[in-house]
Structures are given as C-alpha cells and as structure tokens.
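ARCHIVE RECORD
Type: protein–small molecule complex
Small molecule: pyridoxal-5'-phosphate
Source of inputs: curated submission
Record status: active
Notes field left blank by submitter.
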Amino acid sequence: MITKVRPHLSPNERLLFERSSPGKVAYQLPKLDVPAVDPGRVLGSENVRADIEGFPEVSEVETIRHFTRLSLWNYAIDHGMYPLGSCSMKYNPRVNELVARIDGLAWAHPYQPERLAQGSMEVMARLEAALAEITGMDAVTLQPAAGAHGELTGILLIRALLEKRGNPRKKILIPDSAHGTNPATAVLAGYTVEPVRSTSAGMLDVAALEGIVDPDVAALMITNPNTLGVFEENIVCVAEILHAKGALVYMDGANMNALMGIARPGDFGVDALHLNLHKTFSTPHGGGGPGAGPVAVKKALEPFLPVPRLRRAGKKWAWDYQRKHSIGRVRAFYGNFGVFVRALAYILAHGGPGLRNVTLDAVLNANYIRKKLEAYFDLPYPAPNMHEVVFSDERQAEKGVRTGDLAKRLIDYGFHPYTVSFPLIVPGALMIEPTETESKHELDQFIDAMIAIAGEVERDPETVRAAPHGTRTSRADEVTAARKPVLRWKSA
Ligand SMILES: *Cc1c(COP(=O)(O)O)cnc(C)c1O
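STRUCTURE (tokenized, with ligand):
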C-alpha cells in the first residue's frame, strides 16, 4: 500500500506574509564604516516609516523560492505554444533584448539636448521610414504607446482633417467583426458608431455598406485581414465607396504578420492605420507593457500628426514643434523608445524577404491547423483564411460542451487555451492563431490535443465539462472573482 504524503512543495503555497518569522532578514551588511545619517533629515521625516505593518520577514532563499514557484504556476510563451488569436504574441527574438540594453540606447534621456541625441533620433527616423515602406504610407508617428492609443490618434487625425475641410462629421462605420477597441476609440473621439454587417463569406457586405455611407460618415474602421482571419477581398472597392463620399478608411493593423511583404495597406486604399510593435515587431507583450502603436498616414493627414516631428536640419536631426495643424501631443516625450530599438533591429535583421517569410509562415501554420482540425470542429466561415482560423463549438455543443470547456480541457494537455468566444459574430468561437514561430512538431502536438478532446466530447462530455483536472484550482467562479475578489489566502 502506498502511504499518502503531504508533499513538501504544495500547490497551495502560503503567502509570504504567512511565512514571516520576526527578525529574519534576507541580507547581510557589514558594520557601518561611514558616519550615520538621520534618514528623516535627508528624506524628510514624513517620508520615513519606522515600521511597515505586516511586512514579511523571510530569508533570501525563502523569498527566491517563493517567487520562483509562483512563476512556475504561470503558463508562459517560454513554456509552450500560445494559440490565442488576434492579440497573439509573435516572435520576440532574445537578441533584441540585448540590443535594447546597449548602454547608449538604454540610458538615453528624453531631456538630452538634440546634439547629444542624434543616434537615438536616427533610430526613430529609420524606424519611421521602414514602417512607411512596409505599410505603403507617406508618414509615421511613433508617439502612441499602444494599439488602442494608436487608433485614438488616427481617428483624431481624421477628425482634424475633416474639421479643416469644414465638417468633422458624426459617424464611424465599424464591421461587426471588429476588435473591441475600435468602437471604444470612435466614441472617445466624439463619434457615434454604426455597425456594418458581414456576409456569409465572412467579409464586409459591400451592398450594405453602399447603402449607409452618407455625408455624416467620417470613416470606416476596418481590420484586414479581419478577426475571422479572412482578407477583405473587396477592400479597394470599399475604399472607393468611402472616398467618393469624402470619408476616410482607417485600418487596424495590429496584426501585420498576415500582410508584411505581401500587401501594403497604402496600396489598397487605406488612409491611416496603426501597428502594434508589441505584437508583430519583436517586443514581448502580455505583462502590461510597454508597447508602441505607431500610426502611419497618407499625405493628406501628415500636417495633423502629433508634435514634435523629426526634421532634417542640414546634416543633423532636429525636433520640429512648430506645426500649426498638429493635433498636439498624444504622449509625453517621443514614445516608448526601447520598443523602437527592438522593432528596428527586428526589421533590419529580417530584411524585406525575411518579413515576407514571416507572413508566409504565419499563414501556412494557420492553414495547417485548419486543414487538420476541420473534420472535427465546425468552420462557420469557410472562406480562405490567413494568419488565424476561427472554428465554432456547434458540434460539441450538442453534447453540452462549449468553447470555454474545450479551452479548459486544453490546459490539461499542457497548452494555453485559444481565444474563447471571440469574434462575437461566431457564437461559441474557437479562435486560433499559431503565429509564424511554431514548429510543425509543436503544431502537431496541439492538433493531437484538440482531436483527442473532440473524441472525449463524444465519449465522456462530463469530464470535459469539469476540466481542468490537473491544475491548482479548477473552475473559478469568474463573476464573483471579478466582482468580489478575495486577495488573501486563508490557510486552513
Ligand atoms: C491587440 C489589438 C488591439 C489593441 O492593441 P493594444 O496595444 O492592446 O491597445 C486592437 N486591434 C486588434 C485587432 C488587436 O489585435
């Protein structure tokens, strides 16, 4: 008989506070050999605390082990595949972390005088030029700090242009497959949102669009490829419809790994778009930032770009603040510089053909998954897909198993879940984006797990519905967890 033991390493790790033992410290310091200073005098007595109530007193080893164990509970891109669609983390080459930490770049200060910042300014100028080339646009601002921030900047630029033409107009059209930040942006910029239907092919309904573009429409905000991973084949015609009525086309370019090196938004009628450097261009995301959401525009929008703008002054770079039509600043200083360094390093290391390969691999990987899984999961929009594929849980729902259950079961197989229940136009969506970096081996393991789960749903739906079974906690009450979080662990 096997004796049940309580393991030394418990998945119910106690809080550090509860391990505290008075007098324990995590450091050793030699005796002071300089005159002691009264901290109250140096820092101001109001900034000095004699005691921090409840502060854990633990050793160095206890501290390190505690946080290392906690970190292992997390699934991370360095453990395995992250098949999340839309916002997925693309390739983050480690060497670019090294590049971003080069002293002269990492320690550059935004208040450095221009003559001492020429190198940093050159990095920004080259990145602007590279992004303009990749997108087929005329000018780029690097200021916005994230994708949604880029959207807001872009729509404010459109608003400024229309205002100068005499009327900012009232509405922004947004397809029903759009990312949630799009309507939020439109409203923040003072517009009302009018949804545009998709056809059964998963593309914008051009006839429906034609019927609703009127002189009140300021712009269409469109993601291409859209959140179904489907390329809007009618985009040139769509842009013409808007332009004919004096409206503009804004593109959400957060996921450029479906287009880079193959198609340029500037060539298919887009007037403004943002990019997410923290998705497609090397900076890791998921930890809350920093990111960067540069905005690229056509000539007509250039006068309105945020100040300051980089300007060539003889052989040097200078910052130009004197731009009378500018919408002003959207951020302090010049943007998240460390992200720019990574992006430029990524672009230069890949070169044009390399970036094109990124797109080809991303599309190949997504289609490989689609082909292997389409016999097991319902594919509501069978149009050719690009960098991601969206299934629905229609077949599994007959057994009472929904997309959220399938995703939870995937955790037991050692994978991070795909995106659950998005895009909203697909009820019970399973949105999968493998990205360009996954090997065939990893894709096959993911596919095997998905097929195994589909089999379990047929044989034993209850087990899938109660998943995950191998984790520290299983089904959290998500509503209560959000509304009334209990942030303190009570040991039994
Ligand atoms: C991620 C994403 C955004 C928002 O970008 P943030 O940097 O998170 O603000 C907008 N649109 C699409 C399609 C995205 O994938």
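CURATOR ANNOTATION: The longest helix spans residues 337-373.
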